[in-house]
Amino acid sequence: MLSLVDLLARRDAGTLTPAAAIGIAEAAIAAREPEVGALASLQADPFVPERGPLAGIAAGVKDIIDTADLPTGMGSPIYAGWRPRADAAIVMRLRALGAVPLAKTTTSPFASLDPTRTRNPRAPGRTPGGSSAGSAASVAAGMLPLALGTQTGGSVIRPAAYCGVAAIKPSFRLLPTVGVKTFSWALDTLGLFGAGIRDVARALALLADRPAIDLGASEPGRPRIGLVAQDFAGSPDPDMQAALAAAVRAAERAGASVRDLALPEPLPGAWARHGIIQDYEARQALAWEYASHRDALSEGLGARLDRAQDLTARDYDDARRHAHQARRALKDVFSDVDVLLTVSAPGRAPEGLASTGDPRFNRLWTLMGVPCVNLPVPGEGAPLGVQVIARFGDDGRALAAARMIEAALADPSR
Amino acid sequence: MLSLVDLLARRDAGTLTPAAAIGIAEAAIAAREPEVGALASLQADPFVPERGPLAGIAAGVKDIIDTADLPTGMGSPIYAGWRPRADAAIVMRLRALGAVPLAKTTTSPFASLDPTRTRNPRAPGRTPGGSSAGSAASVAAGMLPLALGTQTGGSVIRPAAYCGVAAIKPSFRLLPTVGVKTFSWALDTLGLFGAGIRDVARALALLADRPAIDLGASEPGRPRIGLVAQDFAGSPDPDMQAALAAAVRAAERAGASVRDLALPEPLPGAWARHGIIQDYEARQALAWEYASHRDALSEGLGARLDRAQDLTARDYDDARRHAHQARRALKDVFSDVDVLLTVSAPGRAPEGLASTGDPRFNRLWTLMGVPCVNLPVPGEGAPLGVQVIARFGDDGRALAAARMIEAALADPSR
Fold first, then answer.
1. CB A158 within 8 A of CB A132
2. What is the pTM of this model?
3. Is A178's CB within 8 Å of B289's CB?
4. Measured between CB atoms, does A82 come within 8 Å of chain B?
5. Looking at chain B, which residues constitute the CATH 3.90.1300.10 domain(s)?
6. How would you classify the pairing of strands B100-105 and B166-169?
7. Class of domain B1-262+329-414
8. CATH homologous superfamily for A1-414?
9. How far is A8 from chain B (nearest CA, A)?
10. Digit-coded pLDDT (tens) for B24-83
């Protein structure tokens, strides 16, 4: 994979120009894209800034994020060839930092659940996950060192786990969603994919203009980790349970303390109501598409919006009250631990391309708005990942703990 | 003015068809628009639904709100003739209820402070206010019974006061902002203009699908009213102070109890930081326009965005913390009173069209996300208005109290 911090180090050492760094990504795309199918469009002859903290970094932009110079297709025939007037705020932020928004990446239609054509570069024959399929796959295939995705249920952390790459879904609204197609305004969150934890930490610190998020800004110390089973979401596969156990052992080897932690009500109740908030808002956000182009919607999304017509404002207000109470309860949970550790998905990526997998272990954290980091757990076979979660606004702490475990996993002797 | 509830009552009595009701608005537009200049575009031959709770209601839509069948110009040459792909969520909601989005209404560029060409129908030679200038003026001129605006500082309540119409800025995100051009995502709030309080109450109850918001759903009783001076924002003009006193006397005649109420810190501190949140977000939301079309920005907005480049994430995070604490403090304020009463603007609309007036008495309430109703106070000369404010989510209570005072003001003998 292309490591963002490695590319920047080579650039800063004078051994790689920004243009040459972009050329590496372009060459990798030429070699891998025909097989992976992660890109919706590609900038043919991009302008490459010479300066800026991310000069030389080629970025993938999920195709529900507006770009003025590339089509924004939303993964749907309804928007085929659509050209927004302006770049989304996050795309302008990439440009301001010197990065090159080189390609749009494939997405489930309107960032919902239906699959794309994209293959999983790390697990042949299995889904790359979704909805940020192309962002996860393009990083996993070594085509891009950075890609933007969005998560409303589990659309960043799950595909990152399935494709074996690092990712962060930051605190809610830390990254601006202006110019990002809305599915659910209370949930939609921009996220980042990179080769490793250091890469997404550097990218997030720069994009959010919060240097303290980057690794090394403060010492991780000996974090107190709460191990969360999320029983309310069912059990993960045995493979995934083994990966979580390996992450726990690595954390302890690195000096962390780990203890089991149950999530009391109202947290399971909030988890159960995530879909009500999501679908009640999606019905409004996609009202034009549903009324004008129902037949052109993908099968799963169309059925979901059909069902959403029956939701009431009362259901929605009740679900929002539960979520509000759960956010307060989660603050109390964090009074005793620094971060939480749990699985990123039920198991390895499902076989075939018919499904993008199940976001049931991701929903609660999106609803809580707290930062989640996917940490790949090395091993045989298709990738597995666990997530490190911190309190709202504490993105740097989640990344520091994830990096600590990542380093310990890479060095089993330590 | 065209009253929404009166039009609906005539329709329900069988004396007015929906098409004839739309025709009334069209005729009024033909007569008044050349002089008022409140419309950015007009639907030539609109489809008029026969059924629906708002069938027969012609609505104005502020020109920063996306429409698929009319241009959305954002009040800026940068978007001249721009055609979004989809209708905004709130426009689809109008259609679902049977209303006709008949016209786009003028707006300050990107809903900022710079004036439009629109005249104040109730105060010749004075500004109609802004940024929702066309929405306020089109209702005041009797051209439309309903218009949508947005408020980020004081862009709904202030023009309503200047033009002598009723308006509500509802609880934050009660109405969906999907498809509304973002200035500040933490502040931008959709609002409604109508002839009187009953009109905006009916419209909001229907658009938000919360019947309990409408008048009559519960008895207003004898509300406890807190009279708020907002000293931190300076003093209103003597005329406005007299209007506020008249509203207090009317409220007391109607059975309310009124007492002075000071707003303690952190509320004044939050008021002072409103602009930091607004401008830090506007810098991101309008990054493409600023980078690509700086010379085409209006003078005030360009200067504002120039200054906003110096704001830091630290300034912004500090301002958000203050706002968070102020929202908690405001909950305590509402433990002793049902609604607050304060001025809607410093005074009558300023003379001339060079300024849209001052939102300093509006900013705090937008930042708090609480519902605000503008209530015109009858009298000689250019209009004056006061605002009735309730706790978050209590839009119906603000409207009920405003209606109670409105009725008492209309009948000084009572």
1. no
2. 0.98
3. no
4. yes
5. 1-262+329-414
6. unpaired
7. alpha beta
8. Amidase signature (AS) domain (3.90.1300.10)
9. 24
10. 999 999 999 999 999 999 999 999 999 999 999 999 999 999 999 999 999 999 999 999
